[in-house]
Amino acid sequence: MLKIGLTGNIGSGKSVISGIFSSLGIPVYVADDVSKKFLDAPGVKNEIIKHFGYGILTNDHEINRRSLASIVFTDEKALLLLNSILHPRIKQDFRNWAMLQKGTPYVIQEAAIIFESGFSKEYDYIIHVACPKEIAIDRVVKRDKIDSHSVMRRMQFQLDDAEKSGLADFVIRNDGSELVIPQVLAIHKQLLEIGTKRNNDVAPGTADA
Predict the structure, then answer these.
(1) Sequence spans of domains, the chain
(2) Could you give the dihedral angle defined by the CA atoms of residues 42, 85, 166 and 121, in that order, rounded to the nearest 10 degrees?
(3) What ranges in 64-203 are assigned the alpha helix state H?
(4) Rounded to whole angstroms, how far apart are CA atoms 163 and 209?
(5) CA distance 133 to 139
(6) Angle at CA of residue 152, ends 179 and 5, nearest 5°
(7) Which of 166, 174, 201, 205 is nearest to 2 (CA)?
(8) Which residues have CB under 8 Å from 180's CB, separation 6+?
(9) What is the pLDDT of residues 98-135, one digit of tens each?
(10) What secondary structure does DSSP assign to 192-205, as a single string?
(11) CA quadruple 46, 49, 50, 54: dihedral positive or negative?
(12) Burial class (CB in 10 A: 0-12, 13-18, 19+), 141
């Protein structure tokens, strides 16, 4: 089984792309959704309170995600600290999840900062969803009802779109210049062929690492 990383900067539309892969029957692990669940885990909550204080909690004693985001997206050290708490857990959780996905040529993990976090070594191939910054900012402003400066503050912690395109094995252009579904289908075809061959090459009774 192949492990595929699907990345893209904020507003690139990577969630739309992962949804297309999912509709094709490919298991997709969304790291952002999992990280939100981890925030509710007692161990993680205690670590966050230890470093960020009780002021990070809501009246219901849950992590105030909006307040946490306002801190980490304006302070690189705070973001690195939060990532050091969450990323090892997400990495292991993805490995455990992938082992349960039997009989599929490949699985996908959708994550925004695959290259920035050092996750890139976890995958056989990486797909980057490319989108010009101006289009991405406009999308996020409309989607999240926030101002453009807030979006740009988040972007400053992500590698440049062109740099990610150069590092990726496949690039999907989601800027309106071409249809995305044919691009996804072309990549899907290649990964099916590679993944199926790998599954067939694994000897009976051995683990597919």
Answers:
(1) 2-199
(2) -90
(3) 65-72, 76-100, 114-117, 133-144, 148-155, 161-167, 180-201
(4) 29
(5) 10
(6) 50
(7) 201
(8) 13, 16, 17, 20, 172, 173, 174
(9) 999 988 999 999 999 899 888 888 999 999 999 999 99
(10) HHHHHHHHHHSPTT
(11) negative
(12) middle
Query: In the numeric block, which tokens belong to residue 126?
Result: 């990486």
Residue type, 23: S
Query: Residue 191: which of 13, 15, 52, 28 has the closest Cα?
Result: 28
Range 2-199: architecture per CATH:
3-Layer(aba) Sandwich (3.40)
The tokens for 51 are 């470093």
pTM of the model: 0.89
Which amino acid belongs to residue 5?
G
Q: 197 pLDDT exceeds 80? A: yes
Whether 6 contacts 129, CB under 8 Å: yes
Chain mean pLDDT for the chain: 91
Higher pLDDT, 189 or 206: 189
